Amino acid sequence: MTRPLTIDDLYRFAIPADPVLSPDGDRVVYTLTTQDAEHDRAACSLWEVRTDGGPARRLTRGPADAAPRWSPDGTTVAFLREGRIHLLPATGGEAAPLADGEPEHGGGVPVWSPDGTRIAFAAPACRPDPAAPVVIDRLGYKADGDGAFGPVRTHLFVADVATGESRQLTHGDFHAGPPAWSPDGSRLAFPASIGGDTDVTGASAAYVIDVDADGAMPRLTGPATGLIGPVDWFADGTALLVVGRTTVSAGHLALLRQPLDGGAPVPLTGALDRNVMPGGPGYPGALPQFRGADIVFCARDRGVTRLYQLAADKITEFPLAEGTGVGGCSVAAKAGRAALLVSDRSSFGEIALLDLDTGSTTRLTEHTAEALAGVTLHPSTEREFTISDGTRVHGFVVRDPKAPSHGPLLVDVHGGPHNAWSPHADPVHLYHQELASRGWTILALNIRGSDGYGEAFYTAAIGAWGDADEKDVLEPVAELVAEGLADPGRIALTGYSYGGYLACWLSARSDVFAAVVPGGVVTDLISMAGTSDTGHDLFTTEIGDRDRQVALSPLSHVDAVRAPTLILHGEADDTCPVGQAEQWFHALRVRDVPVRLVRYPGASHLFVLSGRPSHRADYSRRLVGWVTGHTALRTAGADHD
């Protein structure tokens, strides 16, 4: 016998991430996140699986072990534990800190030198005094999850593996991004925004610094007029491989070849018309990696992050099973293999082995099946809608195939705005499964602005949030009602981050929704621009001038809201500050609209992904209770009338 997935199953999840393949291609080390109910936290440890078969085994005890990286000779795994670099022998045994004592600067993701004698990393240059005044002279003075960091800057360090001694390479009023070693081990490349008014313009560039020269200064490699992300080196050492854009603007990230002679970057992936995905929380992908002269990289298409290869100016997709998404990739070029983190409709994520020559894959783990034995997931099916202006909007419907038609409908809007729903098993939005078990239909739409449908679609709502994409929600809902799938009196709306913004906006623009649950909300674009950790950059590239910020703020239209509203928000959210939720709550309460605000103590913007399991479960339970209760009330009221 099997049963449907419930919110309580959250505590059974075991989800892998960050696979790294040994240089000989025989072993994969990865992180596995489980839920520690006793301490109310997510716990992360290192695991290993052999590529020739056999069960996965646990390597470390956790609870906060992350970012494993193999040494070039395959004898040692470096990783982060509680913010410090540790070393684990490949033959087994206990992990030991790289440095004796507690380093003042902490640690960062370890990057081995080509000869394996040194480790580079980016880390805060000092530990802040929590009681000291925070003096602010530039924008970008806080970050979600960290709060205001004042004068503390992230800089590059190099540690000697034999002695553990480290020294700081970069200095100054800027943050150094993740480093990459040159092929000869003499230089480090990194992204940064250095000098002038880069905090206002948002421009960044790739820099190079000599590792062994005392007092060396970073050298700019090209124009500081774009958006530069992760970097790597071409094998001849004359150019960098960069993920970024040549301008400071909203649009696709591309692979760029940045010559070290100061020349303009050369786009490598523009013909694909898809967004390169280097990976990040909620944005599955992997850093681009070399396979000889070829480049293996990720990009998203129709909600699924796929794996591609750039060879001799030709881009081809690896033939993974239909619907398989990639959330991590580690290439062992000499072995002709790659370790992947893959997701599909039945698994949250598993480790797989890819033969880079044949394209065949072998699944190495079954963590989802083992953790959820006897549990079934309600399937998702694809839908596509043609909007009245001719735009085609793609999305996914989750429902119990046995559920009757003319039932309740929940519309869920993703964040970003440049993210996307996928067809994969979803460990985050557990209320989808809970509601489907109660006869609901869930509609998850990739409205214009979503990633994976070309750059024109990606930028279609720039300067027109709400205005441009509201019809992408309202017209598909009307179509489902016309088909008889949804009861027009029992339609609810939710969304998080940008989805929270659009939920507030639509509740002021339409009377379709019987209940609304915005999370991580944006309601006032004026205050958001000055208080969000990404506010200035976001609104200079996404919204435009002050008049547009006012016109596109849900708060400017709040008089029209009538739907009962539940607002869910993290108290430590620095991306969408909690004041946004407070403003919306106040505006609805004084207008006598049924409203409730739930604040999650200590929760950052990403708490819905990786915060306390009790908070994540509570979020889903409250949402289910609100939409089921208020849609029932609206139906009862209509029947009574």
What would you say about this model in short?
With 641 residues, the chain is α+β, with helices and mostly antiparallel strands.
Number of helices: 12
**Main sheet: which strands, in order across?**
33-34-36-35-37-38-39-40
Rg (C-alpha, Å): 25 Å
The biggest sheet, with number of strands, parallel, antiparallel or mixed sense and barrel status, is:
8 strands, mixed
Number of strands: 40
Measured distance between first and last alpha carbons: 44 Å
Structural class, from secondary structure content? alpha+beta
Q: Note the overall shape.
A: globular
Mean pLDDT: 95
* Parts with pLDDT < 50 across at least 5 consecutive residues: none
Structure description:
The protein is of the alpha+beta class and 641 residues long. The chain is 17% helix and 34% strand. The chain contains 12 helices and 40 strands. The chain has an 8-stranded mixed sheet with strand order 33-34-36-35-37-38-39-40, with helices on both faces. The longest helix is centred in the C-terminal third of the chain and has 28 residues. The relative contact order is 0.09.
List keywords for this structure.
single chain, 641 residues, alpha+beta, eight-stranded mixed sheet, four-stranded antiparallel sheet, 12 helices, 17% helix, globular
How is the secondary structure organized here?
Elements: E1 3-4, E2 14-21, E3 27-36, E4 41-50, E5 57-58, E6 65-70, E7 76-81, E8 84-89, E9 96-97, E10 111-112, E11 118-124, E12 142-143, E13 147-148, E14 154-160, E15 166-168, E16 180-181, E17 187-192, H1 198-201, E18 205-210, E19 219-220, E20 227-233, E21 239-245, E22 254-259, E23 266-267, E24 289-291, E25 294-301, E26 304-311, E27 314-317, E28 325-332, E29 337-344, E30 347-355, E31 361-363, H2 367-371, E32 375-376, E33 380-386, E34 392-398, E35 407-413, H3 430-437, E36 441-446, H4 455-458, H5 471-483, E37 486-496, H6 498-509, E38 515-519, H7 525-531, H8 535-542, H9 546-551, E39 565-570, H10 578-589, E40 595-600, H11 607-610, H12 613-640
Parallel strand pairs: 1-32, 35-36, 35-37, 37-38, 38-39, 39-40
Antiparallel strand pairs: 2-3, 3-4, 4-5, 6-7, 7-8, 8-9, 10-11, 11-14, 12-13, 14-15, 16-17, 17-18, 18-19, 20-21, 21-22, 22-23, 24-25, 25-26, 26-27, 28-29, 29-30, 30-31, 33-34, 34-36
